[in-house]
Amino acid sequence: MVNKEHFSKKFDADLEEIRTRVLQMGGLVEEQIKNAIEALTEGNEHMIEQVIDNDHRVNAMEVKIDELCSQIIVRRQPTAIDLRMIMTVINTITDLERIGDEAAKIARMAKLIYAADRMYTPRFVEIRHIAAIAMDMLRKALDAFARVDPNASAEIVRQDEQVDEEFRSIIRHLVTFMMEDPRKISTAIEILFAAKAVERIGDHAKNMSEYVVYMVKGKDVRHVSADEIEREVGK
Predict the structure, then answer these.
(1) Which of 55, 131, 160, 221 is deepest in the core (most CB within 10 A)?
(2) Residues 6 or more apart from 98 whose CB is under 8 A from it?
(3) What are the backbone angles phi and psi of residue 121, rounded to the nearest 5°?
(4) What residues make up the domain containing 11?
(5) How would residue 211 be classed by pLDDT, with cut points 50, 70 and 90?
(6) What CATH number is associated with residue 71?
């Protein structure tokens, strides 16, 4: 009995360590996005380099958490919700690492935009707006993971639809901008790549929220509507 109780407590401690590390990784990724957007909109060269350099920290955290998950699977052989939690963590850190990549991409685009004395700044207001929505989605997804609460997933899916629409609006504006002044095509394309990176951040945040539904409910809600997710969560 004592051995079983000790095993259970150690297992719970292992799971808690992994949850903590995921949230730490999420915090770093949030900071990377915030700094990348500031670098893009303000032309902060130091911050541009900082975001690019810090991407390796995000990658290292993913590798470490993935190793811990593999060790738990081998040693503990989790089942039911514990196994779903481990699978959720593995999927979540993959999306967090990709969000980190998108933040680094935004910083790289900022570096190009502010280089070679060809600085133009169209549509940064819209990029700030779409980035604010994507960051809110990420915060909600991380909070849902921390609280093991799937209720925010449908709202996050609806926000992703808003991000997609905002991105399409940015494309339309940039096309008009390029047609009016072909000299600015290179910069406009780089801004488009930055906007696309923000749109992808929203996609990854949406994925993360859907993993929480799977963890709690055991139901895969990828590729379904927000209304269907609400019905599943409400069961």
Answers:
(1) 131
(2) 200, 204
(3) -130, 60
(4) 2-234
(5) very high
(6) 1.20.58.220
